[in-house]
Design brief:
Number of helices of chain B: 2
Helix content of chain A: 40-55%
Protein name (chain A): TBC1 domain family member 19
InterPro entries (chain A): Rab-GAP-TBC_dom (IPR000195), Rab-GAP_TBC_sf (IPR035969), TBC1D19 (IPR042507)
Number of helices of chain A: 22
Structural class of chain A: mainly alpha
Radius of gyration of chain B: 26 Å
Strand order of the largest sheet of chain B: 1-6-3-4
Number of strands of chain B: 7
Radius of gyration of chain A: 24 Å
Oligomer: heterodimer
Largest sheet of chain B: 4 strands, antiparallel
Order of helices and strands of chain A: HHHHEHHHHHHHEHHEEHHHHHHHHH
Organism (chain A): Tinamus guttatus
Strand content of chain A: under 5%
Number of strands of chain A: 4
Strand order of the largest sheet of chain A: 1-2
Largest interface: A-B, 62 and 51 residues
Strand content of chain B: 25-35%
Pfam families (chain A): RabGAP-TBC (PF00566)
Distance between the termini of chain B: 49 Å
Structural class of chain B: alpha+beta
Distance between the termini of chain A: 63 Å
Shape of chain B: flat
Chain lengths: ~500, ~190
């Protein structure tokens, strides 16, 4: 290429290569790739720490995750034996051809899914989290300062409002936000125009770190798809498209039991949603491929979860014939497809949509359905939510507890799904902007508490869990950024 | 209001023959200890106990899980006193929070200078950050050939490492020889 010129001297080769990297944009790409790795992987562990310590440092949490996984495996195995359907089966050639022809309209298929049931629903998972106990903690029955008043009884460290204000400082009252300062009453010269201009500049520079900082104030709709891709370092190169095509061919060749679970989930959730039913076909194309993607296995190094394992028939116990099931190691649960649905508004090319979802999953979403002590893990989010509510709305918290309506019972499903399917889509995307911007899921817990604060007056008047659920059943009219701002920066503490 | 009690564990005495004369590193796994102090007794000099580590914080907050089961290293250069010719080591564990049932430290290892604790697999050039370089001034003189050849060698080593790594690129196969006909999921 440009380095093959005879003018290049050996002495200046190092400098020439550096300049070449800068000019061709490769230096930026390398920086973005390194930045991406730093964001995803946890800080290196102590050399003496075994690999399971990086997955999850607390022994009792590892054990709890193991027991939960065993329950899921048993459930899947019994579904398999009851329905006499194998976990995996090679498709006959005719079926392969049929599926290939129907690839873009799998939604028109109406397979009989009545016998399939989701492996678990969020409320089952909540029951497990409620029973989580540290055996070294004084879990006395008598109420005392040791017991938490909410459903979560493990003493994880969670942030308080002063710390959250510092962490989420860009959401402050005197800083422009999309979702607030772009409303029709505000002239665009005040904030919106300049913010869009800066966003275009960030995209032109192709700088991941700058993009991550920028989206903390929200993404302009026209720039969001590119900004998110820049932050997650997804560029949809020819080799990525090829990889996706290979996954597609894996789907064509083998039929997996989890495929039926995916079908059922999509039919039950996304297809019934006013905003997302149009994307039904895309959801199959993404989720079926996701199940076959062995690169997802890499995230288990830093997840507390372990992929399910099996052996080729007739080779039980022989390690050379051990495989993971599904190949990605991730068994979908009820509502899983809602992690993909919002991305369909941004990405229409299947390979790019696929990669964006996969990266979002291995960075964020996996933490919402596994038991760990990570600050963005669902256990910490639940405790953060309960602590925020108890500290700042003690009367409301006490009242709801007294009437048998523990707040977490209502907000859990919102957080597990990262609010997908509960908020209006434009609001959801503004929320996910901040998840990417802050590289943390804590904002989900803050929003959940802010929603309760917003509807506190109505909630104080209810006298049952069902009535409380009714007050909080419809979040589709909520504007997330004002709620977050008021809760963090304008609530009297 | 009840004042939370402060519990001390009994000092751990390590038998004399097992101690290396010079301490390089102490490695251990924490189990809910909030603060650690270490005192040593030396062969020469007065027989009193010298503090080499004073109230080292292991847990960010004594009441919450952060740091409770983490691995720690205490290095020679972090210690307050000279740790040569040590005959006895005393570990004083403090956990002021009453919420925990037990606290201790586990997997205790003490390394002399000759032995290093297990290190992570890093290529040596990675651990040395290159200082920001001045651009080479090349008007009249020729650069030092030794320097140029050393740099060219470094680049060659890098390309070799990259070439060796390529073989590990994932292919994405999940089956065994084309077969994915499996039993039920395994529980172990």
């Amino acid at each position: 290429i440009s380095l093959h010129k005879p003018e290049i001297k050996l002495e200046s080769l190092k400098e020439d290569i550096k300049d070449f990297l800068k000019v061709s944009g490769w230096e930026k790409k390398l920086q973005n790739a390194v930045y991406s790795e730093l964001n995803v992987f946890p800080s290196p562990c102590h050399p003496a720490a075994p690999p399971e310590h990086m997955k999850e440092p607390l022994a009792y949490m590892r054990k709890a995750q193991g027991s939960w996984e065993k329950r899921i495996l048993k459930s899947l195995n019994s579904m398999c034996t009851e329905l006499s359907i194998p976990l995996a089966q090679k498709r006959p050639a005719s079926e392969q051809k049929e599926l290939l022809n129907k690839w873009n309209e799998m939604g028109t298929d109406e397979p009989d899914l009545t016998l399939f049931r989701p492996v678990y629903a969020p409320k089952d998972f909540l029951e497990v989290l409620m029973n989580l106990r540290n055996p070294n903690y004084e879990n006395g029955e008598q109420p005392s300062f040791r017991n938490h008043l909410g459903l979560i009884q493990v003493p994880l460290k969670v942030k308080d409002i002063p710390e959250l204000k510092e962490d989420f400082s860009e959401l402050g009252l005197n800083i422009g936000q999309l979702g607030i300062d772009d409303s029709t009453q505000v002239p665009p010269e005040f904030f919106e125009n300049e913010h869009v201009r800066v966003g275009q500049k960030v995209l032109a520079e192709q700088d991941s770190a700058a993009a991550q900082q920028y989206v903390r104030q929200g993404c302009p709709t026209a720039l969001r798809a590119d900004l998110w891709a820049l932050i997650l370092n997804i560029s949809n190169q020819p080799e990525d498209i090829l990889y996706y095509e290979q996954l597609k061919s894996n789907v064509i060749q083998h039929n997996l039991l989890v495929d039926s679970l995916i079908y059922k989930d999509v039919k039950l959730t996304a297809s019934n949603d006013d905003y997302y039913f149009v994307f039904e076909d895309y959801l199959y194309q993404v989720l079926l491929c996701f199940s076959r993607d062995t690169s997802v296995l890499e995230h288990f190094a830093y997840s507390s979860a372990t992929p399910p394992k099996s052996y080729i028939r007739g080779k039980l116990g022989i390690e050379e014939y051990a495989v993971f099931y599904p190949p990605s190691g991730v068994i979908p649960f009820h509502g899983f497809s809602m992690y993909v649905a919002p991305l369909c508004f941004l990405y229409h090319e299947p390979s790019k949509l696929y990669q964006m979802f996969r990266e979002m999953y291995v960075r964020f979403f996996f933490r919402l359905h596994s038991i760990s002590s990570h600050p963005s893990g669902i256990v910490s989010l639940c405790l953060l939510f309960e602590t925020l509510l108890q500290t700042h709305l003690p009367q409301l918290f006490y009242h709801l507890r007294e009437i048998g309506a523990q707040p977490l019972r209502i907000s859990f499903k919102w957080m597990v799904r990262a609010f997908s399917g509960y908020l209006a889509t434009d609001q959801l995307l503004l929320l996910w902007d901040r998840i990417l911007g802050y590289n943390s899921l804590e904002i989900l817990a803050v929003l959940a508490a802010a929603v309760f604060a917003f509807r506190a007056v109505n909630l104080m008047e209810v006298t049952s869990l069902a009535a409380a659920e009714a007050v909080l059943a419809d979040l589709s009219t909520l504007k997330v950024m004002p709620l977050l701002q008021i809760f963090l920066f304008a609530t009297v503490t | 209001m009840q004042v939370p009690e402060c519990r001390f564990r009994e000092p751990v005495r390590v038998p004399r023959p097992a101690l290396p004369p010079q301490l390089q590193e102490i490695v251990f796994r924490n189990f809910y200890t909030a603060f650690l102090s270490v005192r040593v007794q030396r062969a020469q000099g007065p027989r009193k106990w010298l503090t080499c580590v004073s109230d080292y914080r292991l847990m960010a907050s004594p009441h919450t899980e952060e740091g409770a089961q983490d691995y720690f290293s205490l290095l020679r250069h972090q210690m307050l006193c000279d740790v040569d010719q040590v005959t006895a080591v005393r570990f004083i564990l403090r956990q002021p929070s009453p919420v925990w049932l037990h606290f201790t430290i586990e997997e205790l290892q003490i390394y002399p200078p000759s032995q290093k604790s297990p290190q992570k697999d890093f290529p040596s050039w990675l651990s040395q950050l290159a200082p920001p370089e001045q651009p080479a001034v090349l008007h009249r003189e020729l650069p030092d050939p030794e320097k140029v050849s050393a740099e060219a060698q470094q680049m060659w080593v890098l390309t070799e490492v990259i070439r060796a790594r390529q073989a590990a690129a994932r292919i994405g196969r999940f089956d065994v020889d084309g077969c994915y006909d499996i039993n039920l999921l395994s529980y172990t």
